[in-house]
Here is the input.
Amino acid sequence: MVERFGKSVKRYFKDNFGILCALGAMVLFLYIYPRTHATFLTQTNIFNVLRQNAPNLLLSCGMTMVIILGGIDLSVGSIIAMSGVLGAGAVVWGGAPEIVGILVGVLSGLLFGLCNGFMIAMTQIPPFIVTLASMNIAKGIAYVFSGGKPIRCMTDAWKFLGAGFVGPIPTPVVTMFVVFIISVLFLNRTRLGRQIYAVGGNDTAAKFSGINTAKVKFVVYSFSGLMAGLAGVTIASRLYSGTCTSGDGAEMDAIASVVVGGTSMSGGSGRLGGTLIGALIIGILTNGLNLMGVNSDWQYIIKGAVILLAVYVDFLRSNKKAK
Amino acid sequence: MSEYLLEMKNICKSFPGVKALQGVDFQLKAGEVHALLGENGAGKSTLIKVLGGIYHPEEGQIFINGRETAITSVNRARDNGISIIHQELVLVPHMTVAENIFLGREPVGKFGINYVRMGREAQKMLDTFDLGISAESLIADLSIAQQQLVEIVKAISFNCRILVMDEPTSSISDKEVEHLFEIMRDLVSKGVGIIYISHKMSELNIVCDRVSVLRDGMYVGTCVVSETPRDILINMMVGRELNRYYTRDHVKSSEVVLKCKNLDDAKKRLKRVDHVSFEVRKGEIVGFAGLVGAGRSETMHCLFGLTRGSTGEVYIEGKRVQINSAVDAMRHGISLVPEDRKLEGLYHLQSVRFNSTIEVLHEFISHLRVNEEREAEITQQFIDKMHTKTPSQYQTVTNLSGGNQQKVMIGRWLATSPKLLILDEPTRGVDVGAKAEIYEIMNELTKQGVSIIMISSELPEIINMADRVYVMCEGKVTGCIDYEDLSQEAIMKLATLETVGGQNNG
Here is the structure.
C-alpha cells in the first residue's frame, strides 16, 4: 500500500515535472522578491489565494473532463453569474432559507449542464456552438432576473459557503478539495471515467466498443454545469451578493488551467493532477502580480504570455517524448 | 549515365531503442516496377520515408541518375522527381479533384487563382488515363479507388520519375486493381520507375519485374519475380518455414448459432443492406465475399446494432433477440472487430493496456477500486495469445506496426469471450507472418466452439479459411457456396451479379 502510494507520487512528479518547476520557480521568486517577501508566504495570504481560486478549480475539474472528451464548455462563466443571482434572489426576494437559495443556484447550473449535455449528446451540433448559445442564455437570465443590479445578501448563513471557515480553513478551500478528490476518483476509478478517455480519443471506436457515447457526453457536460453552479453560489457568497458581471471570463481561466496542466485540446488524454497545478499557477500569478503592485491592465498581458509559454514548453517536452 | 535511376546505399536509421534500418541497399531501374517486400516492422516504411525526405538517415548515400543527392526535405525529394503515394490517402475531402491536384501550386492569374485553367488542366491529366472522373467533383463524393487514382494523377503531375506506391490495392476491389495495373504499365513504358509495396503476393507476378526483400531492418536480397517461386520469397521475408500458411480443418456442424432474416438498413438513399438473410453454425467460419461497397460491413453493422432504424429478425441459438446497440450485441456474445482500425478501432493516444481492456472494464473496475494487477494480467494474456510485439503494456498504440495494432484489436474483442466473432478484413495491411498467426488463432477459436464471420476482399484467403461463403452484391446476398465448391471464378460470378438472385447455389 505504502509502496504503491510512493510509486504514484513518483509518477505524478515525473508526469508534471515541467509545470511543477514553473510553480516552484514562481513561489520562490515571490518569496525572495523584496516587495512580496513579507506577505506572500503568510497563512493569511495562502488562504486568500486558495479562497479566491477555489471557484476556478471547481470549473477546471469539470472542464478537464469536457476537454478530455474532446469538447469545450463556454457557458460556465455565465452560469456563475446566473446561479449567483438566482440563489441570492431566492433568499432576498423570495424569502427562502439560505440553504434553499444555495440549492437553487447549484441546481440551476446543473440544469444548464443537463441541457448542454442533452443537445450535444443527441444532435450533431458542435459543443462550441451549443455552449456558446447557452452562455448567452444564462447571461441573459441573470440580467433579466436581477434587472442588472447586484442582489445583496448579508446573512451569516449565506456568507458561510464563500467567506466562512471550517475550523481554521476557509470553506471554499474545503469544498474545492472535496470536489477535486471526488473528480479524481470519478475519472480514474470508474468505468465511466475510463470511457471519457475512450470517447474523447476516438468517438467511432467507442461506439464499436459498445460504449454509450451519448450517456458519457451527457454526464460530463452535466457535471461541468453542476460545478459552474457551485462556483457561482460560492462567489456570490464571498461577495455577499449575486451580480451579473461575476464570472466574466471565468471559462477562459478554466480552459487555461486545464491546458497549462497538460491536457490536450484535441481530447483523449489528460490528468486532473496537472489541472490542479495549472489552476494554482494561474491563481498565484494573479496574486503575485497584485502583491507586486502591477497594474491590473498589464496583468492580462502577462497572464497571456505565461499561458503561451507554459503550453509551448509542454509542447516541446511531449514532442521530445514522441521522438 | 548510371544503370540505375535510383540507388540507395548502406542506409542506416535508428530510433530510440530500435535499429529500423541497418545498411540497406536498394536499386531501381528506369521503366521497372520494383516490389518491396517484408513483414510489418521490417523497415519498408522507414526506407520510403528516408527516400521521401521525411526521415534523415544517420549513414548512407542516395544516388539519383548516378549523382549523389542529399534528400533533406520533402520538397527536395519532390524536386528530384520522387513522388510517394502513402497508404493513408492525404486528399482534402471537401475540395474538388482539380483543387487537390493543384494544392499549393494553383495557377494564378491577374485576379487570383485561375479556376478555369486549373480545371481544364486537371481534366486533361485525368483524361490521359481515361479515368472517367470529373475534375469538378468533390473528393468526398468519390470512391476509395477513385481517390487512389486521383492521388496517382497528382503524383504524376509533379513530373515524377520515381513513384512510390505504399499498398495501393489494400482498399480497392479486384476490378479496380486491374485498372490500376494498366496505369502502372503505361507509366513504366514512359520510363518511370515504380517502387511497389504490397502484402498481396499474388500481385507480384502480375505487375512487378523485380523484388527486394527486407527483414528486421536488413536487406535480404533482390530477385526477378518471374524466376522466383512464392515459397522462396516468403522464406526470405520471414526467415522460417511457413508450412501452416493457409491450412484449416473444415467442420460440418448442424447446430445453428445465429440466424438473421431480412436484415435491412431501411435507408432510401444509398441503400447498402437489402433484405439480407444468412445463418452461422457452431464452430464454423463463414466468409462474406463481394466487391468493395457490396454492403458486407454494413450488414454486420446492422447485426451489431450500430445502424439506427435497421430492421430484420435475429435469432441466437433459436431465440429471437432484439439488438439495438453494440452493448446488446456484446451481451448476446457477439463481438465485432471493425474494418478500419485507425478510424473505428484504436484509441491512438492511449497505451496498449488501455486499448486491450476498454471492453472489459467491469472485470477490474468496481466500487471506486481499480484492480491494476488484474488489468495487467488480462492485457498480458492477450499479448501472449496474439503474439503481439510491444516493448511494454504502456507503449502508446500508435507506435506499433500495423500488424501488431491489428493483434491488439483482435485481442481486445477476444477478451469479451464471444460466442460469435465478426472479423471485418482481419488481415488488411498485415504481413505474412502475422497473417498466419491470425489464421492460426481463428482456427483455434473454432475448435473451442466459437463461430466466426469473416469479411474479406482477398479471395485466396476466404477460399482457404471459410467453411461456407456468402457472396454479396449491391446490398443483396447473391449466393452461398460450400467450401468444396469454392473457387475464385464461382465467387466473382456471384459478386458481379452475373447470376442475379444466386439461383445456382441457393
Notes: The radius of gyration of chain A is 20 Å.
